[in-house]
Amino acid sequence: MITGGNGDIAQAIKSKLEAEGYDVFAPARTEMDVTDWDSIENAIGRYKPDILINNAGYVVPQSVRNADLVNTRKHIEINLSGTFYCTLVALKYNSNLDIINIGSAAALEVHATWSEYCATKAAVVMATKCWAEDGLYAVVISPGRTRTKMRKSLYPDEDQSILLDPQDFAKVVMKAVKKDFESGTHVVVRKQNVEQLLIE
Question: Which of 106, 116, 119, 7 minimizes the C-alpha distance to 55?
């Protein structure tokens, strides 16, 4: 199961999984809102996944000086709370659940106007490590700058050739699906290192 199913990264992961014979449910927000408990319960209760890929994300850069409380809450609810909500509900149906959290290189980087996004993604990294310590298989795979619709809307004039291809990122996620990474691992994937990650 892949949350945030309409995104370019989700669709790339979905296509890779299906090509290898996995049955994949990648609900869009209209099918499962990761901030709404009833919506999560209905979707996960029907599907009961063996592998949960927490991919839903939200970013609207702004200075904290001009922060909008509603926008700040959306960052926290989607990026962090949603990851917890979906994981907790999925574990209720499958105690052997494997968890792959899609993080962001922003968890490790300072961006002046991205404080909510950076903070929530850093929190996901720590949550993942805690879940691994708690006996679950949980890893976080964090893309660097990636060629997606979301990024294009933020940086319309950016040189697309310097960005990570979502299909290449999805190949690294597939390694996590196959448990090639130790539980608790945080893998940062960039255009510059993706080929090396795929041969390790």
Answer: 7
Q: Estimate to the nearest angstrom the gap between the alpha carbon of 30 and the chain centroid.
A: 18
As given in the structure block, the two tokens for residue 102 are 């899609």
Cβ neighbours of residue 11 closer than 8 Å, sequence gap 6 or more: 5, 26, 166
Q: What is the pTM of this model?
A: 0.94
Domains of the chain and CATH, by start: 8-199 (3.40.50.720)
Q: Which residue has the tokens 């991205």?
A: 114
Q: Which structure tokens are listed for 103?
A: 């993080």
Burial 148-176 (b: 16+ CB within 10 A, else e): beebeeeeeeeeeeebbebebbbbbbbbb
Residue type, 133: E
CA–CA gap between residue 32 and residue 158 (Å, rounded): 32
| H-type alpha helices, the chain | 8-19, 37-47, 69-75, 82-93, 115-133, 149-154, 166-177, 194-199
Using one digit for the tens of pLDDT, what is the confidence trace for 19-67? 999 999 999 999 999 999 999 999 999 999 999 999 999 999 999 999 9
Tokens of 42: 């209905």
State CA 192 to chain mean position distance.
20
